[in-house]
Every structure is written in structure tokens, then in C-alpha cells.
Amino acid sequence: MSKTDAGQAQDRAPAPILKSLIGPLLIFLLAVYFYFLAGQIDAPPSPEHLGAAFWPRMILIFLMVSCGIKAGEILLARRKAVAEGTPAGPRPEVDFYKLAAMIVMVVAGVYFMDIIGFPLSNFIFLLLFMRIAGLRKKGSLFLTSFLGTIFLLYLFVKIVYLPLPKGQWFFDDMTIFLYRVLHII
Fold it and tell me: What backbone phi and psi angles, to 5 degrees, belong to 91?
């Protein structure tokens, strides 16, 4: 058996496929566990209310669907590589500085949400997170952050009736003013 035959046999082996599916599979299983755990949250006070378990369960369903989509992408890429007779390409390198910055952004966004309120915290978070992720156009950054924040405000405050942090000091007044301008309250 030549080196190329051995390499092709190794590429066709299920081990590399299973190895690349471990991440989505583990996240999927954790999401299933937390989904059932969220079912133990108190029932809604009345039938017309969604209840405290609705949004955690909805997010977990989306997470499970995302894991399924990612697993499908991995399998399709693998099939395409095998069909073309080329080994699956190397994984793209992870920029650990960007990853660390994004993790810090998530933690900072949650921390500052209580201080400066959800609207401003979310706007700044989206703006900086997308910039770190690589979006360079200032207009797109601003517009996406602005419209995304407005959408989330309407969704959570107006449709779901979920109280969001308004902030402290003058940020509380600023959030109430924004809610009034947008006819949310």
C-alpha cells in the first residue's frame, strides 16, 4: 500500500468525521439537557402569558437547530472533499486574540447592561463585536447595531413584555425617553 493509498484510506475513515462532529454534538446534548431542566421552571400564571420557561426553551431549540445545521455543513464538506478526491482542507486558524476580545465583549456587555441600560449596552456591544469580527464599513456597523437594538427592544419589551435593565443615574431616564420615542411604553 503506497503512502497516498494510506492517506486516502485515513481520510475515508470515520474517526476524522466523528472528531469534527464532537463539538456540535456535545453542545446539542447540553442544550437538550438544559431544555428539560428549563421545563422545571414555574408554569405561567395564566394561559395568555408565555411564562418564565418560554424564552430559555426557545433559545435552546434554536441552539439545537444550529448544531444540526453545523453538523450538516461538516458532513457536506466532507462528502464534497471525498467526491473531489481531495482530503478535507485544514481547519482555518483561530485568532485567539479576537476570540478573547469577543468573550470579553460578551462579559462586559452583560456587566454594563445593569449600569447603562439594555439599549445603550446592546448598541455598543453589537457595534464593537461586529468590528472585532471583521466588519469594517462604518455605515453598516452603525445601521446594523442601531436597527438590531431597536428590533430587540420591540421584541422583548413590546411583544414579550420582558422587562430589560434600564440603567442607573441618567441612563434610566434616557432609556425611558427612548421607549417613549419608539412608542414602546
Answer: -65, 145
> In the predicted model, is pLDDT for residue 92 greater than 80?
no
DSSP state of 52: T
**What is the C-alpha separation between 110 and 122, in angstroms, rounded?**
9
105 and 125 Cβ atoms separated by less than 8 Å: yes
**Dmax over Cα atoms in the chain, in whole Å?**
75
Residue 183 identity (one-letter amino acid):
H
Asked if 179 contacts 157 with a C-beta cutoff of 8 angstroms, the reply is: yes
How distant, in Å, are the alpha carbons of 3, 12, 104, 146 from that of 158?
64, 52, 30, 17
Q: Could you report the per-residue pLDDT of 9-65, keeping only the tens digit for each? A: 444 545 567 777 888 889 899 989 988 888 787 766 666 666 667 778 888 899 999
